[in-house]
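User: Some background: our group keeps a shared notebook of sequences we're curious about, and every so often someone picks one and asks for a predicted structure to add to the entry. Today it's my turn. The entry only has the sequence so far, pasted here. Could you supply the structure so I can complete it?
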Amino acid sequence: MFTRPTDLSVATVAEVVSRTWSIDVDGIQYAPVGFGSHHWIVVTADGSEGPDRWFVTVDDVGPAGRFERAQLAAALGTARVLRDHGLDFVVAPRQRPDGDVLAGIDDRWVVSVFPHVAGTSRGWGRFDDPAAREAVLDRLVAVHAMPTATVPARTEDFALQDRDHLDHALADIDHTEPVHRLGRSPGATRPDDVQGAPGAERSPGGSRSDDAGDAHGTETSPGASRPDDDGNVHGTERRPGASHSDETGDVHGTEAAPGASRREEADATVGSWDAGPFGPRASDLLRRHCDRLVQRVGDHDRFATRAADDRSRFVVTHGEPHRGNTVESAADGLVLVDWDTTLLAPPERDLWWLTKEDSDVVAAYRDRTGVALDPSLLALYEERWALPDLAAAVAEFRRPHVDSEDTRTSWAALRGVLAAIPPDTAGGADGIGPGV
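Assistant: Of course. Here's the predicted structure to add to the notebook entry:
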C-alpha cells in the first residue's frame, strides 16, 4: 500500500519482528510499494547474525481484509515448503521458532518476514524480455510438478472475493434483492448449457496488481520509497498501552464476538455509496454497466462451477506470476515473490498471464509437462483477475475512505475493468475521481 495504516504504529511492528524472529532491529522504514499489503524495510544492528536487511509485510486479516489468517498461513507456508525442497527462486518467509510463518499483532494485523532480495525489480506490464518470460515459465513448470500432498495450500473454491459487496452494490443501484441480482436465482442456466468462454478481451494492464515485486529488490522505481518524518524508527520500544503478548509471539488485542464468522462480520459492513469522495462517482459508473456486469458475473459463476467439478488437474499455483512479481536476483537469477495467493488449482491459473503475451506458451507448456491447457479455463482465470479487482474497489468505496494515492489506484482499477464492458446505454462519460 502507498499509505501507512493509521491504527498501527511502526514501533509495534518493530517490536513484534524483534521479539518473534529474534531480529536485532536497528532501523525500520515504511516502503510505500505494491497494493494489498503494508511493507517495511528492517535494518539490523551491525554484527548481528543473518542478513542485514529484512522485508517485513503486514496484512489485514480482519473482516474487511483480503485474507483469513489460516488462508494466508497456508499460502506462505507452501512457499516455505517449496523453498525447502530446493526451489531457490521462491522468496519464502522466515519461520518462527515454532514453525509458523505469521505473528499476530491483534485480531486484524499479522506480520511476516522475508529476506530482502538484492537485485533489480520489474514493474507492472508485459515482459519486455522474452528470456524473462521463458524463465518464469521454467519456474512455473517446477512449481506445478510439486506433489500437492506435500504442501499446506488450500484448494481453489472459485469464490469471488468481496462478492457480497458487489452483490449489495448492484442491488442498491436497481433496488432488487442481492441474491437474485447476480443471476443466482433458482432455475439459473446450467454450466452445460453455456457455450464459449466467459468475459471479453482485456489487457492484463487493465487492473491493478497486488504487492509489486519491486518491494523486495534493492533497485526500485524512482520515487518508490517516500518515508515521512517518522518513517525511521530506532530500537524496539513499545508504544504506551501496547497490547500484551504471549510465548507464541502473537500480540493479543480484543476478542472476536463468540460464534461470529469473518463473512458475517463483513456482511454487516457492506456500506453505502455516500461513505467517501469516490462513492457517488463509482455508483454512477457502475450504473452505466449494471446489466452487462450482472450477465458477466453470471457467466463467470457457470464456468467456475464446471471447473470446480474436476480437480484431477489441480497443481500448486503461485496465482500472480506477472512481471511485477519477479526480481532479477544477483544470487539466484529471476526469483518469484508474493506467494500470498498460492492455491491448489488448475495450471491455467498461472499460465493465462503468459499465454496472453505469447500464444506459443501453450505448446511450450505441453511439451514440458504433457498437459494441454484448456482455453476456456485460461479465459476464466483472466476474468477472475478482473472481477475481484472490481469487487474490491466497490467494497472500498462503500466503506469510509478519503482521497489518497491508494483510493486513486482503486479508482483506476475500477475504470480499467469496466472499460472492457460495454455500457448498457450509449452516452455519458465515466469521468474521473475527486482531485484526479
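Suggested note for the entry: Residues 213 and 386 are 20 Å apart (CA to CA). The chain is about 35% helix and 10% strand.
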